[in-house]
TrEMBL record:
Matching SMART domains: DeoRC, HTH_DEOR
Domain of life: Bacteria
Lineage summary: Bacteria, Bacillati, Bacillota, Bacilli, Bacillales
Keywords: DNA-binding, Transcription, Transcription regulation
UniProt-listed Pfam families: DeoRC, HTH_DeoR
Name of the protein in its database record: DeoR family transcriptional regulator
The keyword Iron-sulfur belongs to this UniProt entry's keyword annotation: no
Recorded GO MF terms: DNA binding; DNA-binding transcription factor activity
Domain spans labelled HTH deoR-type: 3-58
Xref: InterPro entries: Carb_Metab_HTH_regulators, DeoR-like_C, DeoR_HTH, NagB/RpiA_transferase-like, Tscrpt_reg_HTH_DeoR_CS, WH-like_DNA-bd_sf, WH_DNA-bd_sf
Length: 260
């Protein structure tokens, strides 16, 4: 195999899984660890990856939508804490929309103890985890499956969502601030997120503090379009206060609670 082809396959694996280890790559391609290190050096020089101890990970890029696995491994304590606070907003007998994403997947797991909940989602992983749980009625939107992200998108899903009138929609984002609102790196997700928000009486943004005052490719809503923002205690107090002054309820989840 030519080095360029091997590097292409290495990059493809890292894009799919979010990271890779040198020893595992060496075994897969039947080459030495030193050869893999040289391949990773080239990919890092091209700003495709970031070298880590014993391997490499995908380079952060505000214009790229990252695979689910990569997102799921980041900021886990914050996401768990946010999910715990979010589930308190759901009561028995209610209907909710869960946007696709790693924080909403954690919220979905928290709903397993609730009863008589209608749950609509465009996230294949959420539907698979909750589909057999008694007391939860899971509806999966239509649309085209996005590989590595496991979300359903497109006009079929938007059309389906437009017929619903639910109590609460829990929406995710890639970045948020008061100036640009809630942002995403995916053009195809915008119409789905906006349809979810339009179908809900109450709109809740779930976003850990690492996304605050960052930039993503496209804005899909003003922060004032949300009734509530649930984030973690890493957000600057003055920023939370600014959101509250704009009329948005801000719920701060403590990361320490998720670790106890």
């Amino acid at each position: 195999m030519l080095p360029a082809e091997r590097r292409r396959l290495i990059l493809k694996q890292i894009e799919t899984e979010g990271s890779a280890q040198i020893n595992q790559l060496a075994e897969r391609f039947g080459v030495s660890a030193m050869t893999i290190r040289r391949d990773l050096d080239v990919l890092e020089a091209e700003r495709r990856i970031v070298r880590t101890r014993g391997g490499a990970m995908l380079r952060e890029d505000p214009r790229r939508e990252f695979p689910h696995r990569w997102k799921d491994e980041r900021n886990q304590p914050a996401k768990e804490a946010i999910a715990r606070r979010a589930v308190a907003l759901i009561g028995s007998g209610q209907s909710v929309i869960l946007d696709a994403g790693s924080t909403n997947l954690r919220l979905a797991r928290q709903t397993a103890s609730l009863q008589d909940i209608m749950l609509i989602t465009n996230d294949l992983k959420i539907a698979l985890e909750l589909g057999d749980i008694e007391g939860l009625h899971v509806v999966l939107t239509g649309g085209q499956l996005k590989p590595k992200v496991y979300s359903l998108e497109g006009h079929h899903g938007v059309a389906m969502l437009s017929g619903f009138n639910v109590d609460t929609a829990f929406i995710g984002c890639d970045a948020f601030d008061l100036e640009r609102g809630a942002m995403t790196n995916s053009m195809t997700k915008i119409s789905m997120k906006q349809a979810m928000m339009k179908s809900a009486k109450r709109r809740v943004l779930l976003a850990d503090s690492s996304k605050f005052e960052q930039r993503a490719l496209l804005s899909f809503a003003d922060l004032t379009d949300f009734h509530t923002i649930i984030t973690d205690d890493g957000i600057p107090p003055e920023s939370a206060e600014a959101c509250q002054k704009a009329g948005i309820e801000v719920i701060i989840a403590s990361k320490e609670e998720s670790e106890t």
